[in-house]
Amino acid sequence: CLLGKKLQLNYKHNDGSYSTFGERGSMIGNTWLTAFVLKSFTQAAAFIFLDQKHIIDAQIFLTLRQLEDGSFQKIGSLLNNALKGGVDDRISLTAYITIALLEMPLPLTHVLVRNALHFLETEAQAEEIHVYTRALMAYAFTLAGNEEKRQEMLDALQKLAVKEDGSIHWERPEKQKKTLDLPYYHPQAPSAEVEMTSYVLLAYVAKELSPSQEELIIATAIVRCLPTDSQGMLGRYSNSTPCTNLDTVVALQALCQYRTITYSKDGVGAKVTLSSGDVSLAKFHVDSTNSLLLQCQDLPSVPGDYTAEVTGCIFMQTSLRYNIQPPQEESPFKLIVQTVPQNCTGPKAHQTFDIAFNISYTGQRVVSNMAIVQIKMLSGYIPVKSTVKLVHTFFGHLLINPIIYLGLQVSNLSQSYSFTVELETPVQGLKPALVKVYDYYETDDFAISEYIAPCSTGGV
């Protein structure tokens, strides 16, 4: 916590606001991020020492950005242009900031909260409200104890819900689903869908009075959807990158709140029997003593028919991992990768060469959201770390062998990067390695290229 506090203060501005990079360059403080930091600092103050000046400074900044109608002025930018959740308009931004203020918590009588709630109550009467905004407003009214407006939002959200196989979630109407005709392929929910679904779950389980039985049934159906959608939400693992995102934060908060109201210490536990035909493969027992322990069983053959008999309530999933190259269609990124030298010229090219790549953004926005470049190493090769450190991007780099991750923001102007790799172990029959750039928030938007060592033939 202390380290996190020190790191966060690096991004503080003199006016009390916060931005992605602090006061480096020309970036100004961001309203949304300042509210997020204010809430986080206030809640962390119960566990660590925190100078109250930082909290007061951020609160003053937000006070000066509240307009006469109670809404908040959008200032600064974040690197998710599509959704941060979806707070690109005044209504959703005000709903988010109101949630942050109430979670601090500030009292309902505080001028910031009172004026913001008045604005939201007025806007709640509109007929056309985006589903993400409704989710935020539902949770804001839940925290405020406004049962009438809360129920109005939840009733409207139920009409927009996607109900499949006993689960419930919400999707943006403008987001078209992309499907691939591949075996065992199940598309993952973008971060926005996970986030808005989590806000709705919070609206059901975070009310002051205990949820009704009907509300618990709906909440349970939402919980069924969340772990499947995020496929690793506890580390933003839907992108297979070691990063975190707002959907992770909100989903964890919602799941913890659900766990709080449904947990029973006196439960006898759950039993699971896994079998294939007449053959028993495994028996699991889950109770309060081992509920955090991950229990696994390998399936002997795939495809195959398996039966799981369950007594009690548990979370169980199957995982199938395989490699296949998905087709690339209408990518908003342009990616060109080449080696330097391109041909096997001289003995040095057998031992070391540079990987150079150019990236540009060709999508509909002025700049991309935060983009991740994933560079996989050729078999037998390792990056020269000193050259990787020289690759300057907005978000730096992370090396997790055999993959390098770079975080950056891309415009329509081509950006060029390069670093050096060297041969560690000679490999015969060397195959090309992939370089992939993708939108961190919309993982369906990606571009892929490949490269091969200049002297890849005639390996030892």
TrEMBL record:
Stretches assigned to the Alpha-macroglobulin receptor-binding domain: 368-451
Domain of life of the native organism: Eukaryota
Database matches in InterPro entries: A-macroglobulin_rcpt-bd (IPR009048), A-macroglobulin_rcpt-bd_sf (IPR036595), A2M/Complement_sys (IPR050473), Alpha-macroglobulin_TED (IPR011626), Terpenoid_cyclase/PrenylTrfase (IPR008930)
GO CC term (a single one): extracellular space
Xref: Pfam families: A2M_recep (PF07677), TED_complement (PF07678)
Name of this protein: Alpha-macroglobulin receptor-binding domain-containing protein
